[in-house]
Structures are given as structure tokens and as C-alpha cells.
Write a structure and sequence with these properties.
It is elongated and about 35 Å long. With 58 residues, it is mainly alpha-helical. The chain has 2 helices and no strands.
């Protein structure tokens, strides 16, 4: 992953965090998107991948 890609992911995460309302149910979809982007940033397999996740054991 290039430095530009990392910066783009970090910016997307920050933008999504700005959309959080504090209502757990209303924020579920946004939190899922944030989680998936953070996993990509850290090099962990996203949920929709075909391979087992080593990081979280799913």
C-alpha cells in the first residue's frame, strides 16, 4: 500500500467518524464501514474476503 493510499484511507475514516451521531443503532452501518477501512489500513482481511481472517480468527 502506498503512502497516498494510506492517507486516503485515513481521510475516509475521519470523514466517516464525523458522521457518527452517538446512537448505536443509527451508527451501525457507518461503524462497519470505519471498521472495514481500518482493517484495510492495518493490512487485515475485510469481512467480504474469501479467505479466513488470521487477525480476528473468523
Amino acid at each position: 500500500m502506498t503512502e497516498q493510499q494510506k492517507i486516503a484511507l485515513e481521510e475516509a475514516i475521519s470523514a466517516l467518524k464525523g458522521k457518527l451521531t452517538g446512537d448505536m443503532f443509527a451508527d451501525m452501518e457507518v461503524r462497519d464501514e470505519i471498521h472495514n477501512l481500518e482493517m484495510q489500513l492495518k493490512g487485515v482481511k475485510p469481512i467480504d474476503s474469501h479467505f479466513d481472517c488470521i487477525g480476528c480468527g473468523s
